[in-house]
Amino acid sequence: MQVLDDLWIRIAVWFRGLLESFLPPWAVQLTMDVLGILLLIVLGIVVVLAFTYMERKVIARVGDRIGPNRAGPFGIFQAIADAIKMLTKEDVTPTNADRWLFLAAPIVVIIPAVLLYAVLPFGRGMVGVDLNIAVVFVVAMGGIPILTMLMAGWASNNKYALLGAFRTVAQLISYEVPMVVALLTVVLLAGTMSTVGIVEAQASFPFALVTPVAFVVYMLAGLAELNRTPFDLLEADSEIVAGYFIEYSGMKFAMFFLAEYINLFMVAGMITTLFLAGWQWPILPSWLWFLIKVVVVIFLMMWIRATFPRFRIDQMLGFAWKALVPVSLVNLFLVALVAKVLEPGWARTGVLFVSNLALLAGAIAIMAQVARKREERARAAGEAAIKRYYGSEVR
Asked: Does the model's pTM come out above 0.90?
């Protein structure tokens, strides 16, 4: 298995040696950097082709349907057929749109999605750049889509698009806060902001077991950042038709679609890196374990999409500020306290795990109690309204 584990590294070393035989050092480094960028772009395209097909099949089976089954055997060429359709569609720009911003938005939205792959460790020794502040880089790049969606909505000169853009600012900023607090919890436990260092710090225990609260918070915030059900209010077709990209067609629309699925793989990869010990696991090659964990996380996200209904906008924002933010802050305090008192080992892991379970149970109990009281108030208000209307006691 060691040969398979080092396969891609050996290929890169061999190719670099081949280039060094007839190119100067600066040209070798430039060629390797350009090839690395091209590989990341190709990876993004492959991710979109694979996971659009997977999502259609998963959602179809949850709904007791077959899913794609016409384009190729088992419908595996459906994504390629969709890409051809996008390429042949008419590209329309609204007459009163801000033309340059309208054209720039679908291009800019792709850039941070691809750049984030540079710090994602795909396996042992398989990372584009091992930044010592990789977590800060991830947070910084994750904020750019907010600007691009606002840019798309404003430039479209469409009220539905503008409403979707305003929802973008409200939703994504709201869920950035608990996501960053969950990241701080992991950094506190690992003692480093390097993604490679975080994976190596989970040699004994994956952080999903050490701090399940941070894992759940990051997963839910990640779904909101990806605009996936039940947090897809930015493009709610039943309310604002298609949201911030309603005026985009053809390849411009495809660029937003590409960015969504590239970010899907990235968020699942970050969850794997931060909470599921990344590439670490015995027997199989490290890069294969990383891919398996990412696919499992993405399957869970698809399952959630096929199961839960969409929130209202007030429920969604309230859930972020009234539930996720307080829980993540309390969890950060607990982790900091336990990490200060206890040394790394079984004792600290056990205390953190138990305290996290207690925090989760307490948060769920409080939310259930608040929901019951809200329901009782609504019922009482309804009965009072009926009584006023009919002028008699409601039986």
From this structure: no
Beta bridge partners, 126, equal 123
Residue 105: how many other CB atoms lie within 10 Å: 26
Q: In DSSP terms, which residues pair with 154 in a beta bridge?
A: none
Angstrom distance (rounded) from CA 181 to CA 174: 12
CA 346 and chain centroid, separation:
31
Amino acid identity of residue 151, one-letter, is M
123 SS3 class: strand
Find the DSSP H helices in 244-324: 250-275, 286-307, 313-319
- In the chain, % helix, strand, coil (3-state, to 5) comes to 75, 0, 25
Angle at which helix 250-275 crosses helix 99-108, to 10 degrees, equals 40
Element (H, E) at 152: helix 144-155
Dig out the tokens for 38 from the structure.
């091209």
- Interval 105-157: pLDDT, tens: 888 888 887 888 888 888 887 887 888 888 888 888 877 877 888 888 888 88
SS3 of residue 1 by DSSP:
coil
pLDDT digits (tens, 9 = 90+) for 64-92: 888 788 877 888 888 888 878 777 777 77
Q: Is 126 helix (H, G, I), strand (E, B) or coil?
A: strand
**Please, which residues have CB within 8 angstroms of residue 196's CB and are 6 or more apart in sequence?**
121, 127, 130, 134
32 SS3 class: helix
